[in-house]
């Protein structure tokens, strides 16, 4: 089977190292995974007044998530937490009440930072949010990537063998996790 993975880059920056990381992950992923970016850059700031007449940008975000077999979130850490643009997108996709698009979507969380702990605190925060939204998450391996100049080419080529091996392992485990979650769902047990 081929699984269609929607990926979200949590940075809007033109020179985002997390966008480069997403390119590396896609290059190194197993063949059973295909990738579509789910863009978050054109969403207004969410508030619940929108719920009565959801704007097209919010509906498009929700349908892109719902059409995906799995989600991959590749994000920076801002002030030890989730960047505002990404949190805003999560809030959009979680609403209107009763239509949470994340429910039961197998999700991977990974990120890069120049800092030594490589977005670990953002990921911990993200796990709380995604747990509340009932998204099963890849627990292991964890992907805390310390970005160093020259580690990646802009096209996502990884210049360091151990990093490349780790990212390939991450994606292979992620693919197996998506398959496990979908297989259990397809069995239809209550
Ligand atoms: C940062 N940065 C950062 N890094 C980190 O490891 N932990 C943090 O809490 C923060 N906080 C933070 C806040 C804000 C507002 C900015 C702009 C940056 C640094 C961050 O890791 C660095 O700018 C990365 O390049 C951001 O990722 P992208 O946008 O290049 O993908």
UniProtKB/TrEMBL annotation:
Residues 4-144 form the NADPH-dependent FMN reductase-like domain. It comes from the Bacteria. Gene3D superfamilies: 3.40.50.360. It holds the Pfam family FMN_red. One of its GO terms (molecular function) is FMN binding. One of its GO terms (cellular component) is cytosol. This is ACP phosphodiesterase. It comes from Glutamicibacter soli. The lineage of its organism: Bacteria, Bacillati, Actinomycetota, Actinomycetes, Micrococcales.
């Amino acid at each position: 089977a081929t699984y269609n993975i929607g990926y979200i880059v949590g940075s809007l920056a033109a020179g985002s190292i997390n966008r480069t990381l997403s390119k590396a992950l896609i290059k190194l992923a197993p063949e059973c995974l295909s990738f579509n970016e789910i863009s978050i850059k054109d969403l207004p700031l969410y508030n619940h007044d929108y719920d009565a007449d959801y704007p097209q940008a919010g509906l498009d975000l929700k349908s892109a998530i719902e059409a995906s077999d799995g989600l991959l979130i590749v994000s920076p850490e801002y002030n030890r937490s989730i960047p505002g643009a990404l949190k805003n997108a999560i809030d959009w996709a979680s609403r209107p009440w009763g239509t949470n698009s994340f429910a039961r979507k197998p999700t991977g969380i990974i990120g890069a930072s120049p800092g030594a702990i490589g977005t670990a605190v953002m990921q911990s925060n993200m796990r709380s949010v995604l747990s509340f939204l009932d998204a099963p998450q890849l627990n292991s391996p964890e992907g805390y990537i310390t970005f160093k100049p020259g580690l990646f080419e802009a096209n996502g080529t990884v210049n360091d063998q151990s990093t490349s091996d780790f990212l390939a392992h991450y994606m292979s485990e992620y693919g197996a996790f998506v398959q496990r979650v979908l297989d259990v769902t397809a069995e239809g047990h209550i």
